[in-house]
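Record 1 of the preview.
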Amino acid sequence: MGCCILGRLFGTDGVRGVVNRELTVELALKLGLAIGTWFGTGSRILVGRDVRVGGDALMHAVIAGLEAVGCKVYVAGLAPTPAIQYAVRKHGFDGGVIVTASHNPPEYNGVKVVGSDGVEIPREAEREIEEIFFGSRWRYASWKSFVWEAKPWPNVIEDYVDAVASMVDDEAIRRRGFRVVVDAANSVGTLATPRVLQKLGVKVYTVNSDLNPLFPGREPEPTPDTLRETRRIVAELNTDLGVGHDGDADRAIIIDEKGEAWWGDRTGALLAAHVSERHPELPKRVFTGVSSSTLVEEYLSRFNIEVRWTPVGSVVISRMLIREGGIAGFEENGGYMHPLHQPVRDGAMTTALFLELMAHEGVKASELFDRLPKYYAVKTKVPMPREKAVEVVNEVKKHFSGQRMVTIDGVKVFGDGWWFLVRPSGTEPVLRIMVEARSPEEAKRLAEELKKLVEEIARSKA
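->
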């Protein structure tokens, strides 16, 4: 089942599945019962969602489960995930539940659980909820206490917009008179990011800004390929910047004024150096998943910033950032965590910070990215069940046993001027392949060879 790819129920980032196939209203109700039992009777829980199909029904099923075990539920409604996370922490909620599948294809939805700090609950807590779920060990409230009615929680987006705008040098940004294209992927990012930028004096152009659960403008995952039309618009309008969000707006893929889209590890490296200079009191370290490029180490070593490699998954990075302290956490997929604001992925915050960097440096976006070591990336994926993907990874390890490698999540192999990562997805039944090299031709060749090898191994395991 799609919602049981990793750890039985929770995947890399919450519970996900195809709506009305793996992720049904019945499952959402039981999830609400299990989550509410884990939080405890009387807990104040904020619930919200993105625009995805089935979101309203699934959210109300979760609410029914939470209330049945005695939780006091407040409803944020449609809002970006980071806006809901911010509200949970700011207003002292015991936790939050967000109905979203982030970047997944349109037929998916999901359920994400956050703690009182606004951060996704740790893996151990997910395991405890799974035990309650699979053992049907929820504790129903007595009929006398089953009187709570879910109440709307106001100003979630307004408070978030104000908070993000307050974290950057608005005067410097305002002086530059920036023009920015925002592609919100027909989802909740359109409710916040344009307002943040307008508050900073930016002239905003919106693309895919109407709310539509079918995502007619493009796929919800922001990549150089899915953002091709938006990149063209940025270049043709001669704007200073473009940004592409995913379905719940916790990611931001930056597009420079030439229409070039940049992966999040590149953006993360630039922002980390900038934030470290602005806030020297922060520990000089960053946390990033093994899927990020080795150029992160090359670039940040110039600023004496340590890079800590982590397994893929924003939950892991957030929790390490909280526990050990640092400048930032980030992922190659466009997730950037600014701990002075909140230690979670935040698309609007990423966009505002990048504008601050451009304003302070007085240069174009493309000139900032030109500072980075040059690597060219190719990403692909091969559909297969998780069990087979794990077997394939083990065979890839054997095949490249003579090379330097990191094996904390899949296998990352380092060569002379290239590297690749092969890992099972935590959100989809696919094996992900990432390759980087010093030239686009070499990256493409290596990716094709690696994909062929992976497919041969998979066939041999049939």
